[in-house]
């Protein structure tokens, strides 16, 4: 078996691993990047990116359906599933190609195949052009996570889909049951509802999107209802059987049986770290009780030569978190004093309306020992949102009553996933409510809602009445 030697080897080329490899190369290291499937990992190939291509297309269908209200007369839209799939695949191909160019341009050697540790400073790679032994004084594990399978719903890619099959858009089923009212279930369930499926969500907990602002959840649920979807909470899916041409999912809702007929089932009940087959035992890497690899603030495992970043090391399973961690681990390997030091880790859910958040919620602020004050601004009172005919939702800010420090922001509404970036910057820079309130925001833009919400928290909103003790009747910002 041939042996290659590197300064550092990254295992897994998702948004954590491919970024780590680039950063290592920038810092002058000779880098190997091992990937068994496709550059970009789940995010680019079967997750964030293709799902966003589908979401954008599904939004277009919906916009066309509602266009007549704005005086645009279009035929009622039909979906060419094969063409839409082709578009989505094209988006993926472009980005995967881009990552390949970046790795090459930075001098990273991409090694195709499956890695397995043979010791703390060596791996074997199989399944590629030839079996290889790679040696390096530093390794970064970035193998991500995969969908959890639950009893009674083995993924078969035919009747029971994981997110990966659902994103591939094999068809638009007439009736779809989504098991799990978490982020993936909501994002993909919304896509299929917009494309024409009748969607039923089964969520085991008392609310969908656990941990998200309840007011935002109410709006998301209202949006689902308007699209003909049904949401059952407190609903534990038990199993399914084929009856005639249909599938019948059985569930227990608050102790009572429920049967839902459908044509396909999407199971999205969480992810588990991809650790099997990596030979972690051979390297001596410690795995925690939930299967995630344990790391310190510099992403070093218990084995000094091995780092772990992204989903495999736990925390919120977010692509941008993985990328950030990849940069930090690369810098540590290159001898820098980097460590986990961020204040703001934004999250965005691409349902309808979109929901995003960063920092502390009001309850979280209280738990952290602050006396919180809040300010809210409704998109229904914002000129740009009204002009776009997307007025659902709000921006809500949380601040510290004593110091007026900005502590957290939740956005529910149009472009919430983009708008959260300003809030993340404000938190990272240690902004006070006043800093945002005094910053001139271009008019007419959706971003004005953040400024107005900060003003509202200070009792100085211009386009809403400042009566915090009573329900506010928002005026319209022309
Ligand atoms: P999740 O943890 O967000 O939600 C899973 C849901 O399934 C939970 O609400 C849980 O109560 C429910 N559930 C579990 N077992 C059930 C059962 N038997 N019957 C009914 N409901 C059941 O997990 P996910 O949606 O699969 O997403 C996986 C991970 O990927 C998450 O950590 C998420 O943060 C991440 N992700 C993030 C984004 C984004 O940031 N936009 C997008 C996709 C995925």
Account of the protein in words:
The model has no long low-confidence stretch (mean pLDDT about 95). Helices cover about 30% and strands about 25% of the residues. A hairpin with a 2-residue loop joins strand 5 (about 115-120) and strand 6. The chain is of the alpha/beta class and about 475 residues long. The termini are far apart. It is built from 14 helices and 24 strands. It has helices at about 15-25, 40-45, 50-65, 80-105, 165, 185-195, 215-225, 280-285, 320-335, 360-365, 385-390, 415-430, 435, 450-455; strands spanning about 1-5, 10, 30-35, 110, 115-120, 120-125, 130-135, 140, 145, 160, 175-180, 200-205, 230-235, 235-245, 245-255, 255-260, 265, 270-275, 305-310, 345-350, 355-360, 370-380, 395-400, 405-410. Helix 1 runs parallel beside helix 9 (about 320-335), helix 3 (about 50-65) runs antiparallel to helix 4 (about 80-105) and helix 3 packs parallel to helix 6. The strands form six sheets. Strands 4-3-2-8-19 form a five-stranded parallel beta sheet, with helices on one face. Bound molecules: nicotinamide-adenine-dinucleotide. Nicotinamide-adenine-dinucleotide binds near residues 185, 203 and 268.
